[in-house]
Amino acid sequence: MKAVILAGGLGTKLWPYSETMPKATIPVANKPVVKLLVEELEKYNLDIYVVVGYLKEDIKYALRDFSNINYIEIERQLGTAKSLIDSLKVIPQDDILVLYGDIVIHPKDLERFIEKSEGFRLACLISPLDKEEPQDWICPRISDGKVTSIEGHPRAGSYRMCGVYFIGKEYLQYLEKTPNFMRNVPVGGMPPQEIELSQSFQVMIEEGLDVYAIETEGFFVDIDKPWHILEANRRYIDFLCKSIEEDIIPEGSTISQDAHIKGKIVLGKNSHIGPRVVIMDNIIVGDNTTVTNGAIFTGPCVVGNNCFIYNYPQIGAYTSIGNRCHIGHCAEIEGVFFDNVYVVHYSELYGVFGHSVDIGAATVCGTLRFDDRSTIHRIKGRPEFPKEGANATYIGNFSRTGVNAIIMPGVKVGCYSLVGPGVIAYEDVPSNILVLAKQEYIKKSWGPERYGW
């Protein structure tokens, strides 16, 4: 069997992060999504092919530790089926396991899929919608364990396609029959001109082939929009931390006797938990990281390598802190922090904060609206209703805030942008933009005479 990871798409709905990185390199518990997939696939002794296109060098950098990856470069992205068809021109003919490169899947579900699909010969992984809207996804109809039809962004549905497929080599010929757009859509549906792999399977169904459905039993997240980064990290951190059975403290790493520890800890090499630290649940800490002087972890967390966390910051549950992050002096943070983020001095942050984001002192992210409702987002002009993270802040890579900046619930800030001192950001800030507050003064004479002298 050959495994093919499709990781060449533009991922524009993930703005601002996709502007400077491929979706497949979004960090989940400090590892790029595509790296998590490759680590799991390596367990099954498969030949692994990764299809790259947009910002392909970043994909290769994320997988630099693997010597057995075969890369297939495709410059024009005309749809998932087209990418696969073009890839098969250079892959020796065999059974094909296809995975989209931006998904987070429970390892047991991937194991079940691989075990079952070889016997089925044609199979797809499906997942319950779980409060998601069917209009946001490609959805299958299921009967007696088989897929009876696949519809693009329907008005009703109970399951969604996961972007995990098995195609026996005897059926690869059907890929060539895929039309230029998704044919099976609701009346009035407007599919883009893309050769979609789900439509390939719809063609197979229409020609009388049995396509089997294998349902997820654990977590599954398709990182399609910014709030999915929060969901993916929460679910994966929960999985990792619940898997910790005992403390792991390597030689050269230490935990102070003055620390208050209620959970189990996995420490990396040369890492230290200092005095007055409070840890309320299981956490994982990387190499060469110091957590000291009153830092508080309120729930399960993952911390990267070469971090410095000190002077009474509070870190919320399911927070992922990337490598080389600096979190200090009473900062209150929760969410996902990519590598090299700097947060100090009374900041209050919730959301997703990109690579090398610099947070000015006392920057505050609002999370509660006066109407107590969730923020309605717009992605490419379409209103979106996130089931999680609607009121979070989303700051793109290489951006900054000034002192006392306030970012209102649900606001997104682009890459290479700056939200200046004292600015109250009520709406999304585009990339490559500096926003400064304009201030007016009232000047009057003043002096001792005002006090009766």
Helix/strand/pairing category:
alpha/beta
Strand content: 25-35%
Q: How would you name the CATH homologous superfamily of the largest domain?
A: Spore Coat Polysaccharide Biosynthesis Protein SpsA, Chain A
Radius of gyration: 24 Å
The gross shape turns out to be globular
Would you count the extended β strands for me? 40
- Low-confidence parts: none
In this structure, how is the largest beta sheet organized?
12 strands, parallel
Fraction of helical residues: 10-25%
The CATH class of the largest domain, by name, is Alpha Beta
Q: Provide a count of the helices.
A: 6
Q: Compute the separation of the termini in Å.
A: 93 Å
Task: State mean pLDDT (0 to 100 scale).
Answer: 96
Q: How would you describe what is shown here?
A:
- This protein has 453 residues and is α/β, with parallel strands linked by helices.
- It has two domains: 2-224, Spore Coat Polysaccharide Biosynthesis Protein SpsA, Chain A (Alpha-Beta Complex); 248-435, UDP N-Acetylglucosamine Acyltransferase, domain 1 (3 Solenoid).
- 14% of the residues lie in helices and 30% in strands.
- A hairpin with a 2-residue loop joins strand 2 and strand 3.
- Helix 3 packs across helix 5 (197-206).
